Amino acid sequence: MKEGWVTVNSAHFAVTTDAGERRGREVALRLEQMRAVFGNLLVRNKVKFPVPVEVLALKNDKDYERVSPMPDNRPTEAPGFFLAGEDKHIIVLNLFAIDPWRAIAHPMAHMLLDGNYPPTQPWFDEGFAEYFSSIKVDNKSVEIGSDPELTAKYKEDLLGNTREVRNAPHSFTELLNGPIWIPMKDLFTMQPSATEFHEGTHHTLFNAESWITMHYLISKDMLSNAGQYFQLVKVEHVPVEEAMQRAFGMNSEQFEKTLKTYFQSLSSLFLAMDQSKVPEEQSSGPQLFRSAAPFGPADVAMVVNKILDDDGRATMAEVMARQPEHAAQGLNDLQTLAQDPIDNEKAHRILGFVYMQKKDFKKSEEELGTAADENPKDMWVAYYRALEKFKLSQANAKPIEGALANVQQNLRAVIDWYPDFAEAYH
To answer: Do the beta carbons of residue 417 and residue 379 sit within 8 Å?
Structure first.
């Protein structure tokens, strides 16, 4: 029986899926749990999302492949990916895979750090994101702490044949078990280049050392010491070596020695590494820390609504339109959905944003105007119409004329709808 497209809205996530209500609820629950675990780790009572987060969860492998990024001109093998945007962030999941939400834990951690933690240094952000990306959640428990970059050296194909993975990247355990470490003082001052939420390989010594440093700080309840360290170096401009001594009670050499001893004490990491090299063993190994889930299915309020199949297809087209390799096809799909006889309001609204990004303000205004006529209560249309006026003003180097009161009225309505929307305030 075909269930059709539904939206599942929890307190912090809007999930659109063609896999039915049960799977949509599961996705929303897991993401809410991951958000809560983030707050618990960093002792944050309130975790803010500076922009709305939408989720597209697809049940079909082929549909997911159609919209997914294409590194090396091939669809990504990851069962989830994260698209950052100035208006919203979009999480896309392949529900054909097991626990696909784990694939977006790393960029999700960066997003949450950006909105809820003061500026730090790359080792802290990357170390926390790597630590967080090992998370496993279910209805009863949370597990975390394993090597997030450990992968099996053997894989089973669709026919059940086991093959060795050629040139498999080194796990963190393998990297850290080598003879060379980056000196701690250098680690704490490194500035690796990466665009927002989009990074190169994680299988580097910088990532590995950042991860084990965060692993140690969390396990020893020393994040407050890290906060003191950042106060010293970022605000008071104290030299790194002195700041480490004052905040952690160790100089850089002592800190490195302590970390190496801590790493060698984590026997389960080495057990998991050995298991990964055995053809019959497919497990990533035991997690180091286990606790009760912050809440279960009965504790999260959700609103479920059936939506038109065309709305679902418009969401897929939007995901494509936001990626350079799929932009042309996404635009074409949106134009088809916006034309008669379909005349899909959501497609008009998304086209308005796409044209706005291209600085084609005439088409943008037409599409947003049509969307507003069809659904005057669509808050995204209200936001995009205000944003369009600002972008047009910037492009022409002229102040907003005549419509400023309407723009402010639209933005007040948007803020009432989404109080944490930083760009709406801006």
So the answer is: yes
